[in-house]
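worker-03 picked up job from queue 'complexes'. Input manifest follows; six sequence lines, order preserved.
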Amino acid sequence: MMRLSPPSPERFIQAKQFEINFGGSEANVAVSLAHFGIGSTFVTCLPENDFGKAAEAHLQSNKVVTEQINFRGSRIGIYFLEHGVDHRSSRVLYDRADSAFENIDPTYFKWEEILDGASWFHWSGITPAISQSAADTCYDAIRTARKLGLRISGDINYRRNLWQYGKRANEIMPSLIAESDIIIGGLPDFENCMSVISPDFTDACKKIQQKYPSITKIVNSNRESIHASHNKISAMLWDKHNLLKSKEYELTHIVDRVGSGDALMAGLIYGWLSNWKDQETLEFAIAACVLKHTVPGDVNLVSVEEVGSLVKGVNVGKLLR
Amino acid sequence: MMRLSPPSPERFIQAKQFEINFGGSEANVAVSLAHFGIGSTFVTCLPENDFGKAAEAHLQSNKVVTEQINFRGSRIGIYFLEHGVDHRSSRVLYDRADSAFENIDPTYFKWEEILDGASWFHWSGITPAISQSAADTCYDAIRTARKLGLRISGDINYRRNLWQYGKRANEIMPSLIAESDIIIGGLPDFENCMSVISPDFTDACKKIQQKYPSITKIVNSNRESIHASHNKISAMLWDKHNLLKSKEYELTHIVDRVGSGDALMAGLIYGWLSNWKDQETLEFAIAACVLKHTVPGDVNLVSVEEVGSLVKGVNVGKLLR
Amino acid sequence: MMRLSPPSPERFIQAKQFEINFGGSEANVAVSLAHFGIGSTFVTCLPENDFGKAAEAHLQSNKVVTEQINFRGSRIGIYFLEHGVDHRSSRVLYDRADSAFENIDPTYFKWEEILDGASWFHWSGITPAISQSAADTCYDAIRTARKLGLRISGDINYRRNLWQYGKRANEIMPSLIAESDIIIGGLPDFENCMSVISPDFTDACKKIQQKYPSITKIVNSNRESIHASHNKISAMLWDKHNLLKSKEYELTHIVDRVGSGDALMAGLIYGWLSNWKDQETLEFAIAACVLKHTVPGDVNLVSVEEVGSLVKGVNVGKLLR
Amino acid sequence: MMRLSPPSPERFIQAKQFEINFGGSEANVAVSLAHFGIGSTFVTCLPENDFGKAAEAHLQSNKVVTEQINFRGSRIGIYFLEHGVDHRSSRVLYDRADSAFENIDPTYFKWEEILDGASWFHWSGITPAISQSAADTCYDAIRTARKLGLRISGDINYRRNLWQYGKRANEIMPSLIAESDIIIGGLPDFENCMSVISPDFTDACKKIQQKYPSITKIVNSNRESIHASHNKISAMLWDKHNLLKSKEYELTHIVDRVGSGDALMAGLIYGWLSNWKDQETLEFAIAACVLKHTVPGDVNLVSVEEVGSLVKGVNVGKLLR
Amino acid sequence: MMRLSPPSPERFIQAKQFEINFGGSEANVAVSLAHFGIGSTFVTCLPENDFGKAAEAHLQSNKVVTEQINFRGSRIGIYFLEHGVDHRSSRVLYDRADSAFENIDPTYFKWEEILDGASWFHWSGITPAISQSAADTCYDAIRTARKLGLRISGDINYRRNLWQYGKRANEIMPSLIAESDIIIGGLPDFENCMSVISPDFTDACKKIQQKYPSITKIVNSNRESIHASHNKISAMLWDKHNLLKSKEYELTHIVDRVGSGDALMAGLIYGWLSNWKDQETLEFAIAACVLKHTVPGDVNLVSVEEVGSLVKGVNVGKLLR
Amino acid sequence: MMRLSPPSPERFIQAKQFEINFGGSEANVAVSLAHFGIGSTFVTCLPENDFGKAAEAHLQSNKVVTEQINFRGSRIGIYFLEHGVDHRSSRVLYDRADSAFENIDPTYFKWEEILDGASWFHWSGITPAISQSAADTCYDAIRTARKLGLRISGDINYRRNLWQYGKRANEIMPSLIAESDIIIGGLPDFENCMSVISPDFTDACKKIQQKYPSITKIVNSNRESIHASHNKISAMLWDKHNLLKSKEYELTHIVDRVGSGDALMAGLIYGWLSNWKDQETLEFAIAACVLKHTVPGDVNLVSVEEVGSLVKGVNVGKLLR
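worker-03 finished. Artifact:
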């Protein structure tokens, strides 16, 4: 998607310019992984116009493989972001109806070929929320990935406003989740996308385990919002036996929180692809997520070394020269 | 519409920012007239969101009355403008499908009330090209205006790409034109919107006169494009008897030609509302059009005095202090 | 006034650009109310030049009625604002001598006509501080408003530097205050403009009540400045019987505190025009004031819904999408 | 003075930012000479505030000696510049009433000390037009300079709008001109400031010679304005015997013509201080003037080498690397 | 290289910001070809730091394959570009001593592998001018390319200032040229790099043919500089029998001429790779070169369709919508 | 040095522009003192190009005397600064190899003449770290200063990465320090530059006193980094008898910490030149250092009055008008 935002801290109503960025949940994960040195291919539909090409160039400049992108349709999805600050919240206005991505279709992709040689497939709950054909495309991909033995992660990412095409999340999401190994989600996600209702995360995880036996890890981030510029954040991981908790970070100067969940996801994938232990992976992922809050744009332009330094608490706040 | 353009002379593909402007053919005429001191009301549909409000604020800050704007729908039409320069042409990409304006409907407006007390109604051929309901709305307005005795001007403005809703211009436009007093158009407009085919402007005007007896003036601008930054421009006016020609201007440093036809139209309306003679009106209108090329944005922010100075050739190029 | 400020956090001495805004105490109140949906007319003098017109356009784009503005004189008042940050304070340099506003004159305005149909009149202590004729004009307006039965609010806003035309505030202000219903002020205001001296707000209010029986409400904000970017703020209201206190907010990322008192005033007027109770009104007003600190420029571009959310503590710091 | 201009080609009414520059006729000459390697001292009054200091810093960064500047008064003169383009003219709005410079006074300066060791004194007709005390100060300086044997140049620079303090130019200017060696001026300057009326430059020069025997050179530039971006320019010099003419340059992409007369003056002074012949000096001066049109701001940031290259026609339009 | 330039038309001495671009002769050719749809690999050395990565990202976003780039060394070559305008020339200051590219070494590259499967190799005379090891690397590449049967083009690009490492161009260039099929150059290139001296291009080409029998085409552009913003340009091509001449274009609003020779080269390569006739290829190449002058930055962001339209004279200066 | 930094909070890899500043440890001290009203001369080498001139203009506009600057060499040292924020640290990349300053040489300067009439000489440990000739030049200056009876201060400023020319700091620094009166440094400085090893500051100071009897004061700042935007800072001073401690400040909105040590140094010099007591001097210096964190760029653009207000806690965070 193309993201258009007035220079912070201007409001939409007073803006004379938009800053242009490109992003989207799965794309952000791919870029983040590419900056960690992991070869990443992003599969989507983009329109055959200058903005489709600009989105592709954004991905390429961030080292994501774009060979599988399908260029069709006439418009790119847009979202407008108004940066909040202090007690004024950030706001997003979507303008994605009839985008190339909404019109994505299972017939466009030969997943066996696309996934050939890959070791991991990641999807987000945004995709099946957009349209039936997007949901179908996502399901095809997941099923093929499973058949080919890839590890599969899904970020549930339930947003009530998105589900507009006549299906409820609970009708669509379970079959996608049932084929996944790892999910990110919290209690509202579980309720709305998996019909798992519980006031307690650990308890909910146990119920999910019974209902979705393929799932081996469940991760969630805990964000406490003091206000738009000041949050506390940590993450927790259910490994089928225990609930691991990460360090909590206090973010007092948030630059851009969009994409921070994707940064967390990328950190998890990086850790597990590196065969790190769960706790180590979780600490890396939350530190990546923390750093994302300091980078303008949707994507997390940080290196493994930078995340590692934050995990170890080395050089934090120093002037590195 | 919201207009988004990279800072000149950047291309879309390299843009990191868009400059935000608001415009649209009839809106531009209204703003121009307001800057000439003529009370102008703009009637349209805008979405009920921040960008609809920003468009309204743009009109208000330019002294256009916005009381009759209908706030409905969820998106504002967008067009992307890439400024050309020298041998590289300017380009426009439209993104207006499903905009509030496309979904405008005749039932939204009580034209007798809206037009009460007005002396002039202006419409452009962009509106009936957008959708059937927009064409119907436009027709309602014109018919009511005629009934109430307003003078009616129409800018034919034929653009092949716009007519996408299943009707050809020749099926829709004649009934709108038949109720108008004054039109702006050239040979391709006549052929495509009025089925009047002729290689000669004067001859075409004579044919139009026969077919559309209500029309009393036909105006056209002549633009010779040396390249994107360098044009020559003049206008001509058929007054049912003679073809009047304006002075020709050579524009060597074009800043922004979007809206220059609307500036011409506003100049004509101003002259005729002032009861000027046709030649005087034509010279004022082409000078207004010339000045529009120097003003960034869609609208012509110039005063009657400034246009008058150019007509008289006073102070051109001087440093006024 | 025209406000010129280097982009934050640059100092005057290093600035290469000024950002242009328009504001002024009463204008800010009018804009704020207009954004709350309250029809507001602003009465002033502006010069007959481009900057006078730009100030008018600013008001119009913010839905303030400008029909009563008197265009005379040759210069617009200017103030230069250097944004402070952290331990460096913000600074204002005034350049308003001989402005159109300073030369405002009682003979320019027919207050009976202007105030016809209005329900509220607001004035600020800045106006009588500028010149004798401004004080006289203000007094005329207040007296007429009282005669016509409007509610009258005054923001005392005592600033020692402003009173340069040979009168002390204590010679001018009492007659203006004596005709008002509601005032905003604190202990230094009371001492310098009303000759009411007391170390205690409640006690001072009681003395004011005796001296100025027309006054029904006295409001004051309490600001604790940790530094330029970090303040704590709350408000209190004397209702002739009790001292009501609002919630206190901690502002850790102040963007622009100019106009925050005007935002508070507008919040109070909105609440009372809505016939809310005093406590409800006070909470709404302080929340409006808090949000103003996040909006660049003098005026508070927030809606009733946004203020209401903050009062209720809903969605604070969330990413709204 | 502080110059505030919207980014070209924006109009005042649409500006959101001003670019800040500093300039003024005599200051511009001093800066230009300093960039030519000539030690230059600028004498003026500036206010004791941040903008007075910023003006001083501007001069210092351009190597002008500022030791003789008198810091008094409370405001710096401002002028607003709207850049014209193509058929739209540039405009200047002055806001200099009551500036530190207007209040300059002869008692502030000990000219014998200030001019000690100097070889040239330059003044412009702007100064005596501002106020009686400015005229008196200028006269003191010229008389002292003459006494000390300096060469004295004056740029007549007659502007009708400036003479507002009750004197006509013809009452003040003759005594200043009578003590000068070299003047820049054209027929309107001669008529309004010297009561010399003639339709012909050579004839006028002869009359001046008789009336003002101290004058040894009279220079004028000839500017033909096609429009704001396109001028032709040349200069001519009367040496008491012959009228020398410079090469004519065609300027098709004018960036900023403010200060181009000052650039010409500086070129003349440089040539004569270098003991060049008149024709050589004139060619250098007009080439300096031509280059000024390409430099944003009031001052001519070019070197002797660059001017020399243009005179010789070397490397014009080349990419120098 | 990293290119840093003040926003046009500012001078270095007044700049407060640099715009960042990346370019270099061969890289520009590669990018241009990639935008024409030709798979292009760029081989170079870049430093292992953020600016090396940024240069790589620039290439990737422009679809150039970067797999063969060697990351070594500590600094990226910089050049500073001051944009000229009108009679003020553009200037370049190089700061490339000890750059990663200067220290490039033949041992870093296995040319047989790199060139495997390629059909064309292009080099520029800048490379052998930088250092002995760069010259050696270039020679290795050319010899291998020849052995593998690739077509080889060289842009002679003689710049006196560059040859600083102790060798003259005439000692190095002949062996590189002798292995090439196609060269771009003019009389000074022939004299300084091939010891071919002649006052006439055709005659010089005949001499080159005898001395360098491998060369089948010699191309040169003819640029007439009216000034920095206004040039006339055309190209000519010697095909061993005749001198073909292209159309001449008049460029009156040059935005950025850096890289225009590289755009010409890319146009030639595209035409010949498409098996077009020489005249057709030449017209395409000069039109590509013309369009480059309108694109900010070093690289030519235009499509085959856009170049083709200019060749045909279709839509020049139109507003494309 | 020229400092190039992406607009905060952008990362290097995403930057499209650099903001240009000039600075360097000793230059920053000179500028700061000049803004305190102390005549300051800066002695260095700058290249003979536009950037050397721009650096000189920067100093001049800040009132530093530049007459002793030696213009030689071809490049200016550059450093690239990426502003950190929150948990992301700031980073500096140096590009100063072969700069004019690295090639500085003792033979360029006649220190007896340069220091004639001066009362204080300040040097920083950066200089001797750059090259042997820079160390020699620094030593010459110090020795001469001592001979002439100036007070001498040195900021040890040990940075491991800088010492690349074959000497260790411990081989060079002791002789420079031995001739100084006042030093700024902490435990790592003492160990690496003076071979004084101790875990305790007071104890280390005592050892230094024995080894370097000329030293009368040792100052160090204590910085606690919560993260890049949030530090706590204080300073301490060993006066040969006692360890004085300053107030601690909490900086929660750091704009630019580069040069804050130089601001501290300038505060110390100012206090001692004013013959203030040590505690008063220390409080002034730390307050100057605190304010530097709010000023973008390397230099501390604050006045004595502003620092004094912070020391007294007057008006902190107020809107000064």
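worker-03 released lock.
Chain E has a mean pLDDT of 96.
The CA atoms of residues 75 and 82 of chain E lie 22 Å apart.
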